[in-house]
Amino acid sequence: MCKYLFGTFILLTCGYYISEAQSSYAPLNEDYYHLVDRYEIKSGKINPYFHTSLKAYNRQSIAYFVDSLLQTEGLSEQDQFNLQYLANDNWEWSEQAANESKKPFLKHFYKAKSDLYHVREKAFDLHVNPVLHLSGGVETEGNVNTFTNTRGVEIRGVVDDKVGFYSFIGENQIINPQYVRNYRIRNLTVPHEGFWKGYEDDGVDFFTARGYITFNATKHINFQFGHDRFTIGNGHRSLILSDYAPAYLFLKVNTQVWKISYTNLFTNLTADVFGNAGGLTANDRYPEKYMAMHHLGINIGKKLNIGIFESVIFDRQDSISNGSFDIRYLNPIIFYRAIEQQNGSSDNVLLGLDFKWLARKKISFYGQLALDEFLLENLKEGSGWWANKFAIQIGGEYVDAFGVNNLDLQAEANIARPYTYSHSSRYGSYSHYRQPLAHPLGANFNEFLGIIRYQSFKRFYLTSKFIYADYGSDNVGENFGSNILLDNETREMEFGNEIGQGVSNQLLFVDLTATYQWKHNFFIDLKHVYRTNSSDLVANETDTNYSSMSIRWNIPQRLHEF
User: pTM higher than 0.70 for the full model?
Assistant: First the structure.
């Protein structure tokens, strides 16, 4: 029913006059988005084109922002290259792009540096690009060689200068490092992906598809409908909504006017992949659930952005386990908690806030607070009540650190109390396809991370990541609050709960990556990962060194940072 409801809503809305040109969105990509964000931090002022707490970014807005910076004096050679790269990548909207190829391939291909093939007409704009990700690697923990083989195509464009569209399809065969294979064995899911099947003895085979249409109903109100994912926040992690879980069906409505950005997001999620006759062969329909979320961001002055969010996870199962969308949550400007209480408080409501403060040129601070359940009286008592469930993030970035051009530093701390994001049923947990919608560790953890990025030459990037996490896990038959998929009514105790309880684990993750951009969006990566997990439970102990080389064409790195 959810799919039909979304479709009907889109058709009704399309009946209104669509007045403004509309572009697609730049796909989520950690490296790409860092390039965009660093120039806002470098300027020391909130940019007027988009709110960075909500990703993905509109390509048209990226182009306008970059155009405003390209004439800036005193840019380093690397910055000039980066800004020109971003302008060329969004060239249909940029006045500063220098994207015309001197020697097109066979006269018809790569007329523009960024596109294999494009059509640029008044009524139709089309960009077609191949997608390729080939990698090979070795590790010390497992006895198999790892590899990635992804082939696909990416298409974007605009029809009648009114309706934007985007589509990505990719076929994948992957053998992951041992710790990722262990994750798959425990959870029967591939990180970031949905349905999969086995490939040879240790690998996985899966098909990836994302796509949407987008249009402006008015000058300031945008609709987007399709199958994709989003993130909320300015950190390396998100405690509100991340892109860790696979893509999902969604309807997004964004209103951006004055200094305000207000977003409504309605999604159709997979509640579980167990309990069906088909199992992972998908011969039967998986149980469904839904999420409604709204996020209000406001710029205060030129330095500060504050956001308030609320989300609710729910289902409406009938006697034959068919779910339906509760249309009361379609109200775009109501407090979800009020509806949830009127329904009998059976749903899982999460609320909180986020902020970004550009303290001065080149320095920013950011953070998030997510509240699942909370009683101030019990918190003051320090009794460790199980239902005081919350997560906190605080972090900062320093670009061109210590006067060194294109040396960017980031530090971040994240904590989540036991049982945060969990619920009394699989239909209420803050998850999709058995994967967290927020932090990949779920809950019951302390995490500290640092990132060093250095662009020594125009096309050469060095990145170092250091992640340390202290978290608690469970023995068989236990529930100490780390696994958000478990029914929290099976909790071990009412009081005395603290972060890291259960089986103690200490995770150290180090990633060293060197990347060279040979041509536009064609990257060569050399990567080394050191990962060790010390635990009171011998079965959790891991220790690996993993080295790989990758060739990527129009696709981001595939990261497994957990």
Answer: yes
